[in-house]
Amino acid sequence: MAENHATATDKPVPYSTGDSNITETTIAEMRELAARYPVGRSALLPMLHLVQSVEGRVTPEGIEACAEVLGLTGAEVSAVATFYTMYKRRPVGDYHVGVCTNTLCAVMGGDLIFERLKEHLEVGNDETTEDGKITLEHLECNAACDYAPVMMVNWEFFDDMTPQSATQLVDDLRAGAEVKSPRGATICTWREAERVLAGFPDGRADEGPTGGKASLAGLRLARERNWTAPNGSGGGNGRVAETTVSPEAAAGPRPSDQPGKESQAVNGDDSRKED
Amino acid sequence: MLTPVLSDNWDQINAWQLSAYQRTGGYDALRKALTMQPADVVAAVKDSGLRGRGGAGFPTGMKWSFIPQDNPKPKYLVVNADESEPGTCKDIPLMMASPHTLVEGVIIASYAIRASAAFIYVRGEVLHVIRRLQQAVQEAKDAGYIGTNILGTGYDLDVVVHAGAGAYICGEETALLDSLEGRRGQPRLRPPFPAVAGLYGCPTVINNVESIASVPVILKNGADWFSSMGTEKSKGMTLYSLSGHVTRPGQYEAPLGITLRQLLELAGGVRAGHELKFWTPGGSSTPLLTAEHLDVPLDYEGVGGAGSMLGTKALQIFDETTCVVRSVLRWTEFYKHESCGKCTPCREGTWWLVQILERLEKGQGTEEDLVKMLDLSENIMGRSFCALGDGATAPITSSIQHFKDEYLAHFTHGGCPFDPMASTVFATAGASA
User: Fold this and answer.
1) Which residues form the NADH-ubiquinone oxidoreductase 51kDa subunit iron-sulphur binding domain (chain B) (predicted)?
2) Which domain holds residue A184?
3) Judgement on whether residues A70 and A133 belong to the same structural domain of the protein
């Protein structure tokens, strides 16, 4: 089991390749991030995400740029960059593919999915395919346990996975097909995702549903059986009061096919969980 | 039985947008709060009996009242949206479906403690949730709910959505503060507590997402309404997250004090043809419970009385196909990986626990190893800098307490007696043999 957690640390990575993409624009954006906080150093984590969006990894040039903007030493920035799992010293592919192998997902199939993907992609943990498309990594719990086994592509959710749906997913990604998260947007590149994490929105927030089937499991049952919270007192919550009269009216417009609709396209084998 | 309040608007079209949120009375609570004195807002939350939903269960209103208002330094609100305790999956769907519920709570809470800025520290590994939060904050700014002179009251507030970078330890509130200051996420010694010296050494309140999201409806419906739900010391409704070997996993919002037996009935029971073996009441850091605990009230006191903790109400359900030793090894590998390295008992202790568990799982251990693991756990528990170390011992000690025979079976069998395929969701019929 422990081999899941092994990292390819024996493969040397050049300290600098000398072809940094950090420009004046990047520096200006770093200053913009620093200005959002009462103390500029608070922007260091966002700035490192920005470095990854520009460089495809945390480069020495990126570290120096952060240090210069914040008045820190390179060593101080490196100390932070090396602490956090999401910051990568090796170049990451267009698609960062994560498989949760924490206990619950592992038991539900995550271990087998991760093994299958390592064979299928011919890479180990935290390694990138030769075509530079996919970096595979095992993940710790990603807060989607009610959709186990869970995978993430560029930090978008892929729910209720199987070895088949997982290999299909990475094949689609490598082939350049348009792939949608069942609870998120159309998959962008890892660098584009890192830019959003840095704090520069990409305007895709309105894509995808409010939630998947599991998120709504309790709510749907409550609607079916007309269960509500007690009435609000003193002219309080109109929503709760209305719900007592007519749950359908108070619930507002609902797309009957909304949750999990797109997940069918990704993972057709949804029959094992009772609807 | 179920009381959808926080989740009540999750099935509406575009629930994450301001217009949809306002259609169901969104931001009415903010308008009401802004007509009240900040101290009265604190009192309302105190009276409601709301306790922290991030695991510790500390009374939220009391936390707010610790902020020294005679301190001339700026005050800050920090929302802990770093949801990453294994099994916990309630804040992410809340922020995905209805980020404005959180944002409205943030503004009310900030007003109550007179904060000048608020930060939502969200784990970095949830891209779409971050998009929705960013958009919600922007919409609230455009609507005049965030910024200067909010709704003409003269109150100013800035709100920043801050993405983390992958470190479980940053869910610990003082480590989160260091991380938010642009440092390695390592916990701080307390005292001083964050209420006195938190972010940038200033008075700071740190609350979980669900706690803050519960604030608007408390203001709207009143403290009595909230405390009419729940049990004597555990008030209100809360999100229970069922996952694992259950027919319909998901979020079930109910009054505190519901039992696992009741929740399992709602969720269609343990998956067909199988039976409950063990479960966590609130994530992997809460000691395992078994079928004999099905009728324990899931509130702070009830679960505490059963020798575990309510934690985050992350009910991970495992049936008889699951190997306890494998499960505990994996959780322990997680704690080892996530230990920040600051203190010796946790850094070294989790490392040694993994070494021993690996041996045990391969059937190469001895009964003495179990004694050694309990001894190690005793040296980690209460001697670590923060709760991560304590949490790491929970699966070890509780599994040895309830399933010692299964550890022994690994020795006699010369390895794991379980078929890993049988526990998967795609198990074939023959795999359970």
Assistant:
1) 325-370
2) 95-191
3) no
